Amino acid sequence: MKKIWLFILPLIAFVAMTVFLLSGLFSDPRYQNEVQQDRALPPFKLADVMQPAKQYDESLFHGQVTLLNVWGVWCVTCAVELPFLTQLKEQGIPIVGLYYEQELDPDFGGKSLPQIQSEITQQLSKLGNPYQINLFDQDRSYSMDLGVTGAPETFIIDKQGIIRLHHIGDVNQRVWQNKIAPVYQQWVNQ
């Protein structure tokens, strides 16, 4: 009887692990995106990366429909979308950046704040600066609260601070016209 269990237990563990891995393989990654929509923006208290003495909270998003764009200088796709986002800013669309630094690690250190600020200044002066404010998500906890899986990601926040759209990937002319602009206009007109 013991020999049977020595065979059955590893088999059960193998089958359970296979089912678990296959469920992840065939799950829809957009499900998380849908979960993030139509809920209040999680509360936060974050500093402006360029002016750390200035602190902001979720009231920053009350009163106007705003794009919240998660980005970093290390992100190649973010660099590609900066010129287009700058065009949107020039059209009067308010955009707040949520700066996500990949190289900060609580155990191993990383870049200093002046280093990060210098890199941001260089990139934005070269590619365009679409941001009214750049919030600094130093420990990435707010990105996790938002359900961010990487960068770039863009949210539409309505006048009451409710997330109305969560877009994963870059914002370009096609994405803006077909996906983001209709939702943005809908909430501007409300």
UniProtKB/TrEMBL annotation:
<dbReference type="InterPro" id="IPR013740">
    <property type="entry name" value="Redoxin"/>
</dbReference>
<dbReference type="GO" id="GO:0030288">
    <property type="term" value="C:outer membrane-bounded periplasmic space"/>
</dbReference>
<protein>
    <submittedName>
        <fullName>DsbE family thiol:disulfide interchange protein</fullName>
    </submittedName>
</protein>
<dbReference type="GO" id="GO:0005886">
    <property type="term" value="C:plasma membrane"/>
</dbReference>
<keyword id="KW-0201">Cytochrome c-type biogenesis</keyword>
<dbReference type="InterPro" id="IPR017937">
    <property type="entry name" value="Thioredoxin_CS"/>
</dbReference>
<keyword id="KW-1015">Disulfide bond</keyword>
<dbReference type="GO" id="GO:0015036">
    <property type="term" value="F:disulfide oxidoreductase activity"/>
</dbReference>
<feature type="domain" description="Thioredoxin">
    <location>
        <begin position="35"/>
        <end position="185"/>
    </location>
</feature>
<keyword id="KW-0676">Redox-active center</keyword>
<dbReference type="InterPro" id="IPR004799">
    <property type="entry name" value="Periplasmic_diS_OxRdtase_DsbE"/>
</dbReference>
<dbReference type="InterPro" id="IPR036249">
    <property type="entry name" value="Thioredoxin-like_sf"/>
</dbReference>
<dbReference type="GO" id="GO:0017004">
    <property type="term" value="P:cytochrome complex assembly"/>
</dbReference>
<dbReference type="InterPro" id="IPR013766">
    <property type="entry name" value="Thioredoxin_domain"/>
</dbReference>
<dbReference type="Pfam" id="PF08534">
    <property type="entry name" value="Redoxin"/>
</dbReference>
<comment type="similarity">
    <text>Belongs to the thioredoxin family. DsbE subfamily.</text>
</comment>
<dbReference type="InterPro" id="IPR050553">
    <property type="entry name" value="Thioredoxin_ResA/DsbE_sf"/>
</dbReference>
